[in-house]
C-alpha cells in the first residue's frame, strides 16, 4: 500500500497535512522528504496538523518519522498535533506513546479548543 | 559461403533481376522482330510473285492471241486450214504445234483438211500431218468438246508429249461459223519447258523455290523438278482455295516439306493458275536468330559487367560493416577492447561506426560499474554476516536454568534480514533477582541493529544497581534520549523476578502485552505502558506485579509474532497467539513454548519470508512447593 500526502497552508501559523494509505518502512522516507518541503512553510512557533483520518496503517518506522517531525517542530518552538486517527492507528499511539497522547485529537473542534487554551495561557488570559 | 556477404547477395540479386528483365524484353523484342521480318519477306515475295505472274501472263497472252487470230481466220477459210496453221507455226517459234479441227461434214468421208496439224519436231523442222489417224475419233475427244465451248479461248489440261519428252499445254479457241456459232476448234500448244526456265531465271531470295500450279493443284512447273506433274499438299491447296496468303506449312500438317516453310502465292491472270514462292522459315528467320544471338550475348556481357560493378561498389561500401559485424561478435563474446577503423564518412555507415564505438565504451563503463557494485555488495554481505554474528554475541544463550532450578528461560531471536532491531536479554541482578527484557527497535535493518546494540549494552550497565523495572526503564530511557536526533526508539518489556518468591514486577515502554499461561488458560497481562524508550526524557513507567505459581509460564514477544503475515494476509493477531499458547500442556518447559509458537507462526505464513524481526522469550517458574494467592498489584515507582 502506498502513501499519499496532501498539504494545505491557510496561514503560516497553522498548516494541515493529510496522510492517506500506509506509513511504514517502505513509505516513511518519501514522507520525510515531502515534509522537509512543508515544514519550512510553517512559522517558528506555528502548528503543524497531521490529519490521519485516511491513514490505514502505521509501523514503528512511521512512528519514528512522526516522532522526528514532532521533535523538529518542537526545536523551533512549534507544535505537531495529530488529528482523528483510525482506531487501529490510535491503538498504536496508545501503546507505544511515541507521541504524547495529549497531542492526539479525535476532532478538529477538540484540536481548536486545545490551541485556544494554549494561546490563552500564553497571553495570560486563561 | 560466398552468399553470406551482403555485397555478393546484392550483386546476385541485381544479376538475376536484370536477367529476368532482359529475358522478358528480349522475348517481346523477338516476337516483334520476327513479325517484322515475316512481313518484310512477305513484301519481297509478293514483289517477286507479281513480277513472275506478269511475265507468265505476257507469254501465254501471246499464245492465246495467236490461237484467237487463227480461229478468226479459219472461220471463213476452212479449206486453207493446213497452210494457215503451217504459216502461223512458222512465224511463232515458241509454239510446238498449231492445229485446227472442224466438226466433220461426213464422218464416213473424212478429209485431211478437216483436222490438219502443223508440228515442230525435235530438230525444229515443221511437219504437216492430220488427226485422221488418231486412235480415238477427234470429234468425240474431250479436248475437242471442251474447245467447242471456248468462244474466247481456254487452256487445256497439260499433257506429256512422248515425242518431245516434255510437258505441253494447249490453248483452244472455238472457230466461229457463218451459219452456225461454232464449226471447229483451233489449238496452239506450247511447251511448259519455258515456264520451268522462267522459274529458274527469276530473281528470288536465297533458298526460295518457285512453282506454278494449275486449277487442279498440280504443279505445272516447280524448282523442285520431281514435284512437276504431282498434286500440291492438302494444306497448300486449302490455303490457295481460301486465298490465305501467306501460309505456313509444316511437315506435321501434312505438307510435302522437310521443315516449316512460308508460301506466298499470286494468281496468274487469264488462267486458273497460281504462282507460288516457298521459303523455309529457318532461312527467313536466320538473320533474326543471328541478330538475336548477338544481342543476347551483348546483354549477358552487360549483365555480368553490371553485377561485377555492383559487387565491387557494394563491397567497398560494406567493408566497414563487415568490420563492425566482426567487432559486434567480439562484444558478444565479452571482448570490448579492440580498435575500430577510422571512419570520416557522414553516411549511415559512418554514423553506425561512431555509435557502435560509443556504445562499446558505455557498455564497458556499465560492466565496470556492475562489477564494482557486485564487489561492494559482496563486501557488504560479508560485513553484514559479521555484524550478524556480533549482534548474536550480544544476546545471551537461548536457554538458561537458574542454579536452584526454579527459574527456566528459553528465548529465540530471528532477524528478518541479516541483522535486526529485535532483542531479548536476561541477566541476574545480585543474588536474588533476575532481569528479563524483550524489545523492538523502530524500523529494521542496520540502523535498528545498531540501536539495539546500544540498548542492550546500556541495559546491562544501568540495571546492575536497580531492582525495579520502572527504574531500569527510566534510566535507560534517559540514556537513549541523549543525542537521538533521528528519534529512533525501542519498545521494551522489562521484568524483574525474585528468584526466591516468584514475585514478578513488569514495566512496559510501549511494548506488546505479555501472555501468561497459568492454571490451564492463556491470558494477556495488562501492563500499563509508558512511552517507548528514546523519545521523552520525562517519561515514567508504572509497574505491574505478578506472583508466579509453580508451572506458570510468561511469554514475552515482539510484533514480529503478533503481526506475522504473508502477502495481503490478515495479521496473525494476539488471539491466535493466545490459542497457540493455550494448546500447550501445562508444565511444559519454556523451550516447548518457544518452539510451538514459532511453529504455529510459520504454519500461518506458510513459511514465507518474515516481514519483521521476531524475538520471543518464555519464562517458567518451577517452584511447585509454593502456595498462596496470586498478587495483582500496580506499584508506581
How would you explain this protein's 3D organization?
Chain B: It comes from Luteibacter yeojuensis. Chain B: Residues 315-368 form the HAMP domain. Chain B: The chain crosses the membrane at residues 6-30, 292-313. The complex is a heterodimer of chains A (126) and B (637). Chain A has helices at residues 28-38, 60-75, 87-96, 108-123, and strands spanning 3-11, 14-23, 47-58, 79-83, 104-105. Chain A has 126 residues and is an alpha/beta fold. Chain A has a single domain, classed as 2-Layer Sandwich (Transcription Regulator spoIIAA). In chain A, strands 1-2-3-4-5 form a 5-stranded mixed β-sheet, with helices on both faces. The radius of gyration of chain A is 14 Å and the shape is globular. Chain A starts with a strand and ends with a helix. The mean pLDDT of chain A is 87. By secondary structure, chain B is of the alpha+beta class. Among the domains of chain B are: 75-191, PAS domain (Beta-Lactamase); 397-635, PPM-type phosphatase domain (Phosphatase 2c, domain 1, 4-Layer Sandwich). Helix content of chain B is 41%, strand content 23%. In chain B, strands 1, 2, 3, 4, 5, 6 and 7 form a 7-stranded antiparallel β-sheet that branches. In chain B, strands 15, 16, 17, 18, 21, 22 and 25 form a 7-stranded mixed β-sheet that branches. In chain B, strands 13-14-24-23-19-20 form a 6-stranded antiparallel β-sheet. The chains are: A alpha/beta (126), B alpha+beta (637). The interface between A and B is medium-sized, with 17 and 22 residues.
Amino acid at each position: 500500500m502506498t502513501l499519499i500526502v496532501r498539504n494545505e497552508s491557510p496561514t503560516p501559523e497553522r498548516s494541515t497535512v493529510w496522510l492517506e494509505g500506509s506509513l511504514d518502512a517502505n513509505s516513511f522516507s518519501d514522507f520525510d522528504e515531502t515534509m522537509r518541503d512543508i515544514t519550512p512553510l510553517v512559522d517558528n512557533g506555528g502548528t503543524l496538523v497531521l490529519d490521519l483520518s485516511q491513514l490505514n496503517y502505521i509501523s514503528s518506522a512511521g512512528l519514528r518519522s512522526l516522532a522526528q517531525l514532532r521533535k523538529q517542530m518542537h526545536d523551533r518552538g512549534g507544535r505537531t498535533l495529530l488529528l482523528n486517527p483510525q482506531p487501529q492507528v490510535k491503538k498504536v499511539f496508545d501503546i507505544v506513546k511515541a507521541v504524547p497522547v495529549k497531542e492526539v485529537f479525535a476532532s478538529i473542534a477538540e484540536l481548536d479548543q486545545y490551541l485556544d487554551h494554549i494561546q490563552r495561557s500564553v497571553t495570560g488570559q486563561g | 559461403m560466398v552468399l553470406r556477404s551482403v555485397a555478393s547477395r546484392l550483386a546476385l540479386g541485381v544479376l538475376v533481376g536484370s536477367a529476368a528483365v532482359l529475358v522478358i524484353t528480349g522475348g517481346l523484342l523477338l516476337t516483334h522482330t520476327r513479325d517484322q521480318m515475316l512481313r518484310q519477306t512477305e513484301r519481297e515475295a509478293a514483289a517477286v510473285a507479281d513480277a513472275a505472274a506478269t511475265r507468265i501472263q505476257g507469254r501465254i497472252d501471246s499464245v492465246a492471241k495467236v490461237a484467237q487470230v487463227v480461229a478468226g481466220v479459219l472461220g471463213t477459210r476452212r479449206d486453207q486450214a493446213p497452210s494457215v496453221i503451217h504459216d502461223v507455226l512458222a512465224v511463232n517459234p515458241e509454239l510446238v504445234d498449231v492445229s485446227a479441227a472442224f466438226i466433220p461434214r461426213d464422218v464416213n468421208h473424212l478429209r485431211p483438211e478437216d483436222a490438219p496439224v502443223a508440228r515442230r519436231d525435235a530438230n525444229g523442222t515443221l511437219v504437216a500431218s492430220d488427226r485422221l489417224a488418231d486412235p480415238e475419233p477427234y470429234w468425240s475427244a474431250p479436248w475437242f468438246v471442251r474447245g467447242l465451248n471456248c468462244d474466247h479461248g481456254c487452256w487445256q489440261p497439260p499433257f506429256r508429249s512422248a515425242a518431245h519428252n516434255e510437258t505441253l499445254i494447249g490453248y483452244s479457241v472455238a472457230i466461229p461459223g457463218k451459219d452456225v456459232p461454232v464449226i471447229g476448234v483451233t489449238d496452239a500448244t506450247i511447251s511448259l519447258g519455258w515456264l520451268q526456265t522462267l522459274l529458274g531465271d527469276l530473281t528470288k531470295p536465297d533458298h526460295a523455290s518457285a512453282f506454278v500450279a494449275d486449277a487442279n493443284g498440280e504443279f505445272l512447273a516447280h524448282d523442285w523438278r520431281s514435284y512437276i506433274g504431282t498434286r500440291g499438299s492438302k494444306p497448300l491447296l486449302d490455303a490457295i482455295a481460301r486465298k490465305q496468303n501467306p501460309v505456313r506449312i509444316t511437315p506435321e500438317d501434312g505438307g510435302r516439306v522437310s521443315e516449316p516453310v512460308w508460301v506466298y502465292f499470286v494468281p496468274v491472270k487469264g488462267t486458273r493458275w497460281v504462282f507460288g514462292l516457298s521459303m523455309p522459315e529457318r532461312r527467313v528467320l536466320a538473320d533474326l536468330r543471328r541478330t538475336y544471338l548477338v544481342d543476347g550475348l551483348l546483354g549477358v556481357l552487360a549483365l555480368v559487367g553490371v553485377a561485377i560493378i555492383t559487387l565491387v561498389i557494394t563491397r567497398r561500401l560494406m567493408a566497414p560493416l563487415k568490420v563492425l559485424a566482426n567487432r559486434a561478435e567480439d562484444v558478444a563474446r565479452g571482448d570490448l577492447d579492440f580498435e575500430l577503423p577510422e571512419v570520416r564518412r557522414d553516411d549511415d555507415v559512418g554514423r553506425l561506426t561512431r555509435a557502435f564505438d560509443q556504445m562499446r565504451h558505455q557498455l564497458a563503463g556499465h560492466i565496470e560499474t556492475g562489477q564494482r557494485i557486485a564487489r561492494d555488495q559482496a563486501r557488504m554481505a560479508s560485513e553484514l554476516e559479521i555484524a550478524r554474528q556480533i549482534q548474536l554475541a550480544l544476546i545471551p544463550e537461548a536457554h538458561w536454568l537458574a542454579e536452584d532450578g526454579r527459574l527456566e528461560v528459553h528465548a529465540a531471536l530471528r532477524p528478518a534480514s541479516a541483522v535486526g532491531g529485535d532483542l531479548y536479554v536476561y541477566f541476574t541482578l545480585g543474588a536474588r533477582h533476575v532481569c528479563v527484557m524483550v524489545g523492538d527497535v523502530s524500523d529494521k535493518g542496520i540502523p535498528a541493529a545498531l540501536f539495539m546494540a546500544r540498548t542492550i549494552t546500556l541495559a546491562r550497565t544501568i540495571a546492575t544497581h536497580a531492582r525495579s523495572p520502572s527504574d531500569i526503564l527510566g534510566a535507560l530511557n534517559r540514556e537513549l534520549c541523549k543525542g537521538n536526533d533521528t528519534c529512533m526508539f525501542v519498545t521494551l518489556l522489562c521484568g524483574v523476578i525474585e528468584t526466591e518468591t516468584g514475585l514478578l514486577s513488569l514495566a512496559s515502554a510501549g511494548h506488546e502485552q505479555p501472555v501468561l499461561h497459568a492454571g490451564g488458560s492463556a491470558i494477556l497481562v495488562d501492563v500499563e505502558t509508558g512511552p517507548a524508550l528514546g523519545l521523552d526524557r520525562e517519561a515514567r513507567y508504572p509497574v505491574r506485579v505478578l506472583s508466579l505459581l509453580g508451572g506458570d509460564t510468561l511469554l514475552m514477544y515482539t510484533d514480529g509474532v503478533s503481526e506475522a503475515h504473508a502477502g495481503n494476509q490478515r495479521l496473525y493477531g494476539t488471539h491466535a497467539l493466545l490459542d497457540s499458547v493455550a494448546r500447550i500442556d501445562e508444565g511444559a518447559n519454556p523451550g516447548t513454548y518457544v518452539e510451538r509458537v514459532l511453529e504455529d507462526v510459520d504454519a500461518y505464513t506458510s513459511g514465507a519470508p518474515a516481514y519483521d524481526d521476531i524475538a520471543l522469550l518464555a519464562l517458567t517458574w518451577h517452584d511447585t512447593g509454593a502456595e498462596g494467592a496470586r498478587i495483582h498489584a500496580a506499584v508506581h515507582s
